[in-house]
């Protein structure tokens, strides 16, 4: 008999229904909503004139057609982002009007060639356009959808004079999102960023945890702690002071060996639940290149395995796959 999940895990459409449309476009978000996702997940960066737009990175050569715009060729540059040298075009060097002249494209065409047909069809959305899409769709449907925002590179943006925290909370509050029960999550890989946001709002916050390295703000202030320290007993207790959930790389829940075969689960889910933190796992994708050896050709099986651990949310590029899995499991 299958273990019954007491509360249905939420489906978080990772960058929208990004398995079916270029990521972080209104088309990807709309499709995810229509598929039945509980939340859509925009990553936020900022333009030169201080407008939030949805891109996974502030360097946009992989996700837009900017290389086809000769008028912007002189803005190709090299920057250090979170300690890494990055070449390309960066959102903070463009006004919103200039960004709107670009079109989105598939980020991984070699893995998702089916999405190439949508290249250059969609513009880059602003946060306000995403909010408007969600609120308009919620007027039409019984099952309401929320927004699961990620602040990208907050220390970097702060250091170039474009801090993210105050304008983000101002926008959300003005759009009617207030309180711990609001259909909003705000996530970040950094810690200071979330702590600052926690002083500005009581909206739910999520500490993202990678399976290696450390938050960049720790590097910036020469704090020796790593992501592994954040998921220790002491670390989890500290997270409860400012966040309601952790967003976990799934390898921290069920590790893989060198052959990408799954090993035994860790106690992280029960440890987090023990201090009243929700656990949202990322990222679930259908392609074999992302799947463990145990579940080649069976993405639904992988998702089902993690749901049986008792996680509270699933980040998926294919929200329909995650949804089928959840209703199979409950």
Characterize the structure shown.
The protein is α/β, with parallel strands linked by helices. The chain has a single domain (10-329), classed as Phosphatidylinositol (PI) phosphodiesterase (TIM Barrel, Alpha-Beta Barrel), CATH 3.20.20. It is 28% helix and 17% strand. It has 12 helices and 12 strands. It has an 8-stranded parallel barrel, surrounded by 5 helices. Strand 11, helix 11 (299-307) and strand 12 (313-316) form a beta-alpha-beta unit. The longest helix has 14 residues, at 127-140. It is globular.
Layout of helices and strands, plus pairs?
Elements: E1 10-14, H1 26-35, E2 39-41, E3 43-46, E4 52-54, E5 77-81, E6 84-88, H2 96-99, H3 127-140, E7 146-151, H4 154-159, H5 165-174, E8 184-188, H6 192-198, E9 205-209, H7 216-220, H8 227-230, H9 233-239, E10 245-249, H10 268-274, E11 278-284, H11 299-307, E12 313-316, H12 319-329
Parallel strand pairs: 1-2, 1-12, 2-7, 3-7, 7-8, 8-9, 9-10, 10-11, 11-12
Antiparallel strand pairs: 3-4, 5-6
Helix pairs in contact: 1-3, 11-12
């Amino acid at each position: 008999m299958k273990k019954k999940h007491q509360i249905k895990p939420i489906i978080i459409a990772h960058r929208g229904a990004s398995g079916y449309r270029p990521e972080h476009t209104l088309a990807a978000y709309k499709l995810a909503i229509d598929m039945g996702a509980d939340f859509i997940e925009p990553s936020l960066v900022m333009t030169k004139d201080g407008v939030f737009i949805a891109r996974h990175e502030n360097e946009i050569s992989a996700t837009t057609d900017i290389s086809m715009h000769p008028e912007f060729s002189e803005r190709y540059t090299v920057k250090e982002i979170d300690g890494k040298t990055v070449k390309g075009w960066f959102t903070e060097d463009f006004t919103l009007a200039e960004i709107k002249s670009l079109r989105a494209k598939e980020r991984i065409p070699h893995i998702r060639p089916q999405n190439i047909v949508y290249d250059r069809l969609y513009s880059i959305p602003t946060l306000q356009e995403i909010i408007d899409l969600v609120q308009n769709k919620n007027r039409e449907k019984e099952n309401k959808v929320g927004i699961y925002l990620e602040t990208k590179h907050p220390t970097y943006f702060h250091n170039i004079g474009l801090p993210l925290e105050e304008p983000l909370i101002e926008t959300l509050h003005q759009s009617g999102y207030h309180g711990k029960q609001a259909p909003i999550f705000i996530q970040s890989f950094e810690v200071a960023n979330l702590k600052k946001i926690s002083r500005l709002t009581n909206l739910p916050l999520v500490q993202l945890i990678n399976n290696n390295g450390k938050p960049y703000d720790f590097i910036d202030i020469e704090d020796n702690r790593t992501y592994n320290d954040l998921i220790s007993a002491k670390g989890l207790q500290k997270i409860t002071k400012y966040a309601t959930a952790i967003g976990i790389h799934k390898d921290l829940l069920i590790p893989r060996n060198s052959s990408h075969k799954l090993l035994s689960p860790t106690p992280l889910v029960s440890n987090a639940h023990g201090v009243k933190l929700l656990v949202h796992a990322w990222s679930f994708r259908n392609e074999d290149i992302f799947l463990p050896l145990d579940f080649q050709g069976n993405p639904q099986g992988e998702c089902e395995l993690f749901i049986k651990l008792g996680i509270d949310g699933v980040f998926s590029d294919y929200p329909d796959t995650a949804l089928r899995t959840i209703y199979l499991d409950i």
